[in-house]
């Protein structure tokens, strides 16, 4: 009798094993009539999972976005903390559990998460053509209309546009190395003061270096090429192996994430750190986290420039309200506020030529960044994000060929 | 009947969910279930069994656990006699380190022992080093130095309190007097009377604590090395990184780790029961 009960319970529990892809109820669709969308969104609560690792970004969202969407559209925006892997894990768990609706309504993502979420069908779309403010977005820009070489196909909305920059302390580095060759010399002359983080930002630097070492960024456009990867990743590993003994801790270990690297930089253990946001140096100095002698620069070989995006979860039952929030986030008003260095300093995805003159002037007269390089100048050195497989392979090979050696 | 209901209830809330989880993880690792499942495949298991990552992490975790237990055992063994005859306030002090969460200990030790930490700064002001790079690498090092230290500061107070209980329940004071009456020296009493009793009576606890240390996550995440990685860090990295097809590998690694731990615990429990029955 007891055995029979236990077997019965096993069957019930294990029946969950075969329940994936059962999120059959896709919730509401987004109406083509925007006034209907606005009407039906009023009074709804939208849950947004986003990275909350920067106080300036958190403040922009909590003190500016949340009250504005409440006041203008009657939507309660609840922000929950989580980035790429947590978003993917949450949505996979929901799909496997066969939940009828998702806990999350919208997510802040970029290429590698977009790739994973498209693989499991967790993103709603296409929805971009339904948002009135997309008319201002610069979809002709290759750094906006493609995400890790994948066409966005209306499944995610561009939100901000940034470029990887290196940050140095000019009290420790009089003249920063401007090329990989100069960096090699500098690192050998100044052992223990340079490293890279073993996370998304560090791997983005490796991608930039690999493309730089190839001398031909066009090789990395389009789909993943095993031949291209093998040839130029070998060059990259040779380069890193040569400087490894002169890296921080002799290259035996690397900071686990960029926050740890920023900490090592701010307390003087490292002379360099890096950021995926070319304007971050300004707000980190304003926050008092970086010394005032910090400056950002780009290597002559260029660095990766990419956009970050907003997606609507397929299992959400508040897709229209999420669409209203996203439409507000790409409005000229919200983009202008976000671009100010004292607010966030995030690059806009809007095409200034599409804006009315008064707004165009407002964007052009945003206070200057003091410590970050000029936006126009670094744009000349911008490299496209290669396909997601390059990142997956670099991450694994960096462990096997560098960390574990 | 009442006893059977109670046993069924116990199994339902403990064994069944764990076994169901294990079976689910196993099926996931074979590609039979999961959102990315494409049918039965052994490719994930080939990666677990043929690449060195899993076994290196497992071995490293068990070694870190064993060193922690060894150090904590002897610290506790040598200090517990000083707390036996006290007023109880001494024993109360032992509860303080136990009340601090592991993550807080880890963070505290990071601030103390990192290259730009408190001790490094102190050394700089004393003129012992001229820059943070000269400070010895203690955090994130391959030997897991501060990982071990962090676990030791939590383990030895716990062992101390446990040894006091054993000392009293096994009437070690009387056995000590008896041994001395037969002419044993203090050293002989310590090594040939007290140590075997304390060790045998705490053996299961030591094994369980070893498993706890080997399976800890927050402490090695902050203070441990990236190569080799503790088994939990290895598994979670596979689970959360950029490649969706690493997830079944993570499930397989978690399944195999659970089986290894289960074997260790069952084996030690069996040995313990045999000891209690006088069949060492």
Automatic annotation (TrEMBL), chain B:
Gene3D superfamilies: MetI-like (1.10.3720.10)
Keyword annotations from UniProtKB, A to Z: Cell membrane, Membrane, Transmembrane, Transmembrane helix, Transport
InterPro entries: MetI-like, MetI-like_sf
Domain (ABC transmembrane type-1) ranges: 54-268
Localization per record: Cell membrane
Pfam families: BPD_transp_1
Protein's membrane topology: Multi-pass membrane protein
Classification via CDD domains: TM_PBP2 (cd06261)
TM spans (from-to): 7-28, 48-80, 92-111, 143-164, 204-223, 249-269
Family: Belongs to the binding-protein-dependent transport system permease family. CysTW subfamily.
Protein name: ABC transporter permease subunit
UniProt source species: Mangrovivirga halotolerans
